[in-house]
Design goal:
The protein has about 280 residues and is α+β, with helices and mostly antiparallel strands. The chain contains nine helices and ten strands. The strands form two sheets. Strands 1, 2, 3, 4 and 5 form a five-stranded antiparallel beta sheet that branches. The structure holds flavin mononucleotide.
């Protein structure tokens, strides 16, 4: 496993932090984090990410890449690139969430930013080729006490809230809620998907359990967020959900693989897009 701590504990303790102390991430923590993001760079669908741990410099007078006032005091960011291609954003979501959980283990705060960051300013900090996209970034550092911004955004996004189990997990059809008793081995793993972070806290993942041990992942395309032109944030959310499922299943010693093969016989609902399935191996 790539963490010292249980991934279940890391998922439960992670939350978004938007205010940071102006403190240095010292050696060896800086190099451990740097190593982690460069080694854990490939998603389950084979797309490679190229992450950089950016030090924007010490002190109040330093010009930092913009976050529209959302992030306060952050000196360090993780920003990455991925080449356009099938499931590239899902893989990016998977890899950045893996890094977020590593930072959490090391006592560092993070906050996924898919909308409120100045893409141009961050692009200047990473070497970008014509086919590369920079889908999202996160500050990383020592959390400061929660500011008014933190509290306001948390309350607008209702960040502590999550959809109920029966709203996101199904069997056979997307209108047939899954009884947890039918998936005893996977119940705690699915719970780690349920509590994952997502853009605007919309939790677009919908999962159909098939024969008790195959899991088909879909995203629900909300009209509001689909209208956001820069990045398909729901594909990043799908990558985060897949990351939590994958790492938790591995920690429990369950062997499985990801396939992309939409099951024909299951009943789908409108505005749902199939992403991938986890099948036992
Ligand atoms: C893909 C993605 C994009 C996000 N983009 C932003 C953003 O642009 N600005 C922001 O303040 N929070 C952003 N968030 C953070 C969410 O609002 C937050 O994860 C959610 O409200 C749940 O709160 P929690 O992370 O504290 O559990 C994003 C989260 C994800 C997963």
């Amino acid at each position: 496993m790539c963490y010292k701590d249980s991934v279940f504990d890391l998922v439960k303790s992670r939350r978004s932090w938007r205010s940071y102390e102006d403190l240095e991430i010292e050696y060896p923590l800086f190099s451990n984090l740097s190593d982690f993001i460069s080694k854990n760079n490939t998603g389950p669908f084979g797309n490679k990410t190229r992450f950089s741990l950016i030090d924007t410099g010490k002190g109040a007078g330093v010009k930092r890449p913009g976050t529209y006032g959302i992030i306060r005091g952050a000196r360090y960011y993780i920003a990455g690139l991925v080449r356009k291609g099938p499931l590239a954003l899902v893989d990016y979501g998977y890899c950045l969430e893996k890094a977020v959980l590593f930072a959490t283990q090391e006592g560092l705060g993070t906050c996924w930013l898919g909308g409120t960051f100045d893409r141009g300013a961050f692009r200047e900090k990473v070497a970008k080729g014509p086919e590369d996209i920079l889908p999202a970034v996160t500050p990383v550092g020592f959390p400061a006490k929660k500011s008014i911004i933190d509290r306001t955004i948390k309350s607008i996004a209702r960040s502590h809230k999550r959809k109920r189990w029966e709203e996101v997990f199904f069997e056979k059809a997307l209108n047939d809620p899954l009884d947890p008793k039918k998936v005893p081995v996977f119940e705690d793993i699915l719970e780690m998907v349920r509590i994952a972070p997502s853009a605007s806290n919309r939790q677009p993942w919908r999962i159909i359990a098939d024969q008790g041990d195959i899991f088909h992942f879909y995203i629900y395309r909300s009209r509001i967020i689909s209208a956001y032109p820069k990045t398909d944030l729901q594909q990043l959310d799908a990558g985060i959900a897949i990351c939590h499922f994958d790492l938790c299943a591995k920690e429990k010693g369950l062997k499985g693989k990801w396939t992309v093969s939409e099951p024909g016989q299951l009943i789908k609902k409108e505005r749902h897009t199939y992403i991938a399935s986890w099948v036992p191996a």
